[in-house]
Every structure is written in structure tokens, then in C-alpha cells.
Specification:
The complex is a heterodimer of chains A (about 375) and B (about 350).
Chain A: H1 8-49, H2 79-112, H3 117-131, H4 135-147, E1 156-158, E2 162-165, E3 168-171, E4 173-174, H5 178-197, H6 202-224, E5 232-233, E6 236-238, E7 241-243, E8 246-248, H7 250-276, H8 280-288, H9 293-323, H10 335-346, H11 349-378
Antiparallel strand pairs in A: 1-2, 2-3, 3-8, 4-5, 6-7
Chain B: H1 14-22, H2 25-51, H3 62-65, H4 72-83, H5 91-108, H6 116-135, H7 151-177, H8 182-197, H9 200-214, H10 223-248, H11 252-260, H12 265-295, H13 307-316, H14 324-357
Helix pairs in contact in B: 4-7, 4-13, 5-6, 5-7, 6-7, 7-8, 7-10, 7-13, 8-10, 9-10, 10-12, 11-12, 12-14, 13-14
Classes of the chains: A alpha+beta (about 375), B mainly alpha (about 350).
Chain lengths: ~375, ~350
Amino acid sequence: MGSADMSTTEQLRARSVRRKLIIQGLLIAVTIAAVWAAIRSAQVNLAALGITSGFGFLTRATGWDYSFSLIARSINDPYSRTLFIGFLNTLFVGFISIVLSTFLGFIIGTARDSSHPAIKSAATVYVQIFRNIPLILQAVFLYSVLIHFPGPRQAMNVADAFFLSNRGLMMPGLNLSGATAVALLLGTVAIAAGLVVRKTPLLRGIGLWLVLSTGLIAVTTGLMRPDDAPVLSIPELKGLRFVGGIIVPIELVAMITSITLYGSAYIAEVVRGGLNQVPRGLIEAGRALGLSPASIWGRIKVPMALRSIVPPLGNQWIFIMKATTIGIAIGFSDLFYIASNSITQSGQTLELIFLLMAAFLLVNFSIALSVNWLNARLQLKAH
Amino acid sequence: MIQAESPPLPSFGAISFFKRGFGTPLASLVSVIIYGVLAYWAWLAFDWAVVRAVWSAENVAQCKAEAGACWSVIDARHRLILFGLYPYEEHWRSTLACLAVVATVVLSCIPAAWSVRRLAALWIAGFASYYLLMDGSLLGLPQVTTDSWGGLSLTLFLFASVVLLGMPMGLGLALMRRSEMPVVRLIAVVLIDFIRSLPLLTTLFTAAVVVPILLPSWLEGDKIWRVIIAFALFFACYQAEVFRGGFQAIPKGQFEAGKALGLGYWAIMSRLILPQVFRHALPSTINMVVVTFKETAIVIIIGFFDVLASAKAAFGTGEWAPHYIEVYIFVGAIYWVFIFSLGQYGEYLKGRMAIFER
């Protein structure tokens, strides 16, 4: 075997290194072979189907319509624009659901942590109902209920401003163009980010954010609205349909409501877990200093709890983004719906699945990055 | 000046309940309002679901007259919801097969079953009895192929096969992720992060629609098996992270101690590290299993006749169409009971292990 002056340990080590190299080399070879074989058989299969690969189809007109878009659409749109609309819809539903379920989740989670038995049990009932039924079942159920609602003339009327019928939810809205509304939305996010950067204390931060955002929206609406229109447009029944306000189609109502109920039940558990981990001594110290329960919550519990809440909260946000793919079950045109329809219509399976995956990777990595940034901001720094 | 405070209340017991809920006028008011609303809703639901309900399929005509629930639709359609298009005379086989899966899950919750060998044997036996009963050809019964499986029994089949296949795959990925070989580690990390960033639906859709293009036709296999394997991969990527959490709880010194004793990699893993990893990972694993059961509902989108699809079919035809609410509540209740009880069990286990770890 080996030369006499080489010790056994060194021999063994050399053999182990050699074995590891061989295993890794084989793995690389197998991976390359599998990819190559997949490409080869894709070429054969696509040729048999008569499909030309490549992204040329993106400029072709689609010729089909779908349920919802935030910007103007027509059946003559090219695939690229249609897919972009689907992407916007996914971001839109995801963003609104994330904001609503985080807000609701903090309320329910705090209630779960309450020492008052009635508040606690109401929150427990909420969490146990919405967390233990599959999201898609909740969405399909809610959608069926909404389709069976009466028409606009018998719409459910709340305060003469909100009307729910089988055509959707009509609600008051600001007289703004879609682009301005998106700009405003981004503006409020920027204000929030600015407050986090400046490390504003939580309660004051929320208050400041509300004041600044309302101010921004009020000023912009005052400046940007059409000359003769009122600031607020309120829906009114004119003949068979509603005029004015914002019309939220039932697909969108079902999507946002079901995702928010499900997501908030999960976020409530994350929040409760975080609040639970705050050492009791800190809370008792706050009480001994004579702080009010609200101050103890806003100045001690939440800031302490946030450090353990934020990482799992980020996972929930990513989950909510991914959950928007249930749109296809109730006919909401999210990105998955549009991509899957495009595959059926154009046959460009590989290209479309690539775009779909790339879009989700992009969105989810962006969320993960912002959560990491937020998390780094929140950690205690050693001085 | 700050008032002297009374000593803190105990956190449980009837006295604490009344002191916390009715100790001050405000607390009492809140209690009365919340309990009042909850009781009113409970009464509304009870009135609708029990008092004014119609129960049997014989007196369906009453459903229009009474404003309550029409459980007749369940009486008439429960076979479709539970077993899908499985041949009617063979439903006893579906029933037994479903019971086998449920029994497997229940038995796995008993601490006496908690060794890798016993759990593996249990799940393989449960899955095999399910498959033998449903398919039937090996038992000398008329063969029923997977295309006729449906309803709750298909949901349970997907669930059992995903967990059974996904668990070893997850362990494999977790070990690969901890490997000393950079290429092995890289493959595991890329795969896990990639699958975890994508919606489950995209992964399953890829398996159902895209994979046939990438494979030569002789390798394609049945759509249901492609989807199960993709689902198992999805499960495995999440479960690998659960195992990773378990690995992190084990001091590095243990691995080194094993090496110093001259044990090889596999001996160290199987005798020393993994038994502890499994114990640490148990509560999160139960959580993963529960989530997987819930997520199986999504296969309706890629065209499988699972319990949600069969529920839709149950009221889809003419006379039962107005009673879709009852059908959804029935299916929702099936999911809820299963998920709630497993979830509560997971919570109990977490609490019990937390006590041991102190």
C-alpha cells in the first residue's frame, strides 16, 4: 500500500478527501447530464407539438379577456402587457392583504394576550376558526356567498355609503386617477420607512405616520382632483346600477377578505408568541413606575416583542404573497391565473413558467430583504 | 402618588376568572357585551343548523318551507363527497382505506410509537393497506384505478403519500445541507430556498404541465404521481428546515465525541445525533403535517377530484344548488376537526417538552 514513512492517519485523510472529491464530481456530472437530457427531450417534444421556443410571443395579441385589472386593458393587448397586469394584480392583492392582516393580526394577537377572559376567548374563537380551515375553501365559500347576493337594487346598504351586491362592493372613494393613488400609496410607505430609519418611538411613530399620511393624501386630493368634482365620490343607485365611488368586484372582495382573515389568524399567533416572550419583570417594572396599560403595551411590550415578531412576520408576508395564487379558483386574474391561461392559449409553457417563477422569486426576495433590513434596525446595538 | 396595588391574581381558576372578567365596572361591561354577542351568534347558528333544519333526504320538499339548514343534501350526497366517483358497491373499501390512514395518524401520536423504525413501519403499513384496498387487484377484488379515486379518500391519499415520501426526502436534504462537501451543500441550499420561495401551486402546476415536456414519454408516469412527488419535494424543503432547527439544538461537541470514539458518519448520525434531532423537531413536524393536510386542498386547481371538488359537484346539479352553504360547512367541518385536534395535540406536546427541557 502506501510508503512506509506515511502515517495511517494521513493515509486515511487522503482517502477521505479523494472520496469526497469523487462524490462531488459525480453529483456535478449527474446534474449536468440531467439538465442536458431535459433540454434534449424538450426540443424533441416541442418540435412534435410544432411550438417555436423563445419570447417572441410576448408581442402577440392575446385575444382573450379576464376579470380584473388596475390599468386599461383590451383583448388586443400583447402577452407582455397582459402578464404585467397580472403581476400588478398579484402585488395589489398581496400588498392590501399584508397591510390589513398585519393590522388585524396585531389587534387579535394583543387580545389573545389579554388578561380579560372574555376578550381572550373572543380572539381564540377567531383564530381557531380561520386558521384551521384551508384558505382555498374559505375563499371559494365566500365567493359563492357573494355570487348569491341580491342585485344592485336590493344591495345590502351600510350608512348609505357602502353597498354590497352580487356586482361587488361599492364604496366611497377619493376622486383620483389610478396613477396618483399608487403614488400616494408609495408615499405613505416612504413615510413609514422614514420613521423607522429615524427610530421614532412606536406609539409616536404610528401617530406621526397617521397625521403625515392623512395630510399628504388630503393635500394631493385637493390639488389633483378634476375641477368640478367633489373630494369624495359616493356611490349612488341610478336605475339598475351604481354610479360614483369605487367599485370593488366580488372576486377581489373574496380574495382580500379570505386572505386577510386567514393571514391575520396566523399573524395573531406570531404576535401572541412575541408578546409572551417579553420578560414579566419588565412589565411589572413598568407597572411599578405607574405607566398606564397603554404605555406598557406601546413602550415596553411591543418594542421588546417586535424583535422576535419581525422574522416570522416576514415569513407570513411571503406566505400571503404566495397565497394570492388561489385567485384562479374564484376567477380573479392574478399572475398565476394569467400565466396559466397564457399557457393554454399560446402553448409557450416553458417561457411562461419561467416568467412566473422569476416574478415570485423577485417579489419574495424583495420582501425577505426588507424584513432583514427592518430586523437589523430593530436589534439592540451594543454600545 | 401611586396607589398601593393588590397582589397579582393567580392566572387560572374560577376566582381569577371572575376577578379578571368582572372585577371593575368596565371589565364587567366588556364581558357582558362580548359574551352576549358570542352567545347570540351561537344561538343564531344553533337555530339555523339544528332547530329549523331538515335532516333526511325523504322530506326534501320541506327545505324550501323551512328557513333552516337543509342537511338533506348531505344525506343524499355524502357518498359523492367522501368517495368521489369510486364504484358505489365498492365503497366499503374506500371507507376501510380512509380509516387506515386516520388510524395511522392517530397511532403516530402515541409516544410508544416514537422510534424511527416503528413510525416508518406504521406509515408504510397504513399506506400499503390504503393502496391495496383502493386498488384491489392484489387482493383479488375488482381493480379500481387512481382516476376513479376521489373525494375525501383522494385527499387522504395525497396527504399520506406526501408525508410518507417527503419525510425521508426532508431528512436527506437536511443532511445534505450540513454536509462537509461544498457541492452537496450548495445543491441542497439552492433547492430548498428555490422551492420555498415559490407558491405550492406553481410547483404542482410545473409537475403536472411542464415536466412532461422535459421528460421523454417513457419516463413521464401518471399525473397523480408526478404531482405527489412534487408535493413531497415541497414538504421535504420545509421539513428540512424543521430538522435544521433540531440540529442546531445539539451541541457540536457530541459529534466530535462520536468521532473521538472512532464512530463513522452514519453511526454518529443514526445512533447519536438523529434521535435527539427528531425529539427536538417533533412539535414543528406535527405543525408541518397539519399544514400539509390543509394545503392538499389546492390540488382542485390542477384538476384533481379531491374533497373540495367533490363538494362542488355535490351541489352543482339542479335541485341541490341552493344548498351550497351546507355542503361547504360539512367539508369545512371535516377539515376543521382534523386540523384542530392535531394542532391542539402539537401545542400540548410543545408544552410537555418545554417542561422537560427546563
